[in-house]
């Protein structure tokens, strides 16, 4: 399972996105606003989920903003952090 696929599954299950399946999520759509429609509470929860599931802490707001642009951006951020140790 790719990081993108894992993230889609985690988003649906951990954020309780009712009526959505991982396959419904466009990996390039924005996570917030017009895209997936997540809000600021979801953002906080997502930071905790990334830390718990992948062992990666997001310390910097600018870093987080870039990572949370889309599922694809978050997957790339996670993969980059994991490969850099």
Low-confidence stretches: none
- Quaternary structure of the protein: single chain
Could you give the distance between the termini?
21 Å
Strand count, sense and closure of the main sheet? Answer: none
- Rg over C-alpha atoms, rounded to the nearest angstrom: 12 Å
Could you estimate the helical fraction of the residues in percent? Answer: 55-70%
Class from helix and strand fractions: mainly alpha
Cα shape: globular
The helix count comes to: 4
User: Strand tally, please?
Assistant: 0
Beta-strand percent range: under 5%
Order of helices and strands: HHHH
Quick overview of this protein structure:
This protein is mainly alpha-helical and 85 residues long.
Describe the 3D structure:
Helix 1 crosses helix 4. The chain starts with a helix and ends with a helix. Helices cover 56% and strands 0% of the residues. The protein has helices at residues 3-14, 40-54, 61-67, 71-84. It has 85 residues and is an all-alpha fold. The longest helix is centred in the middle third of the chain and has 15 residues, at 40-54.
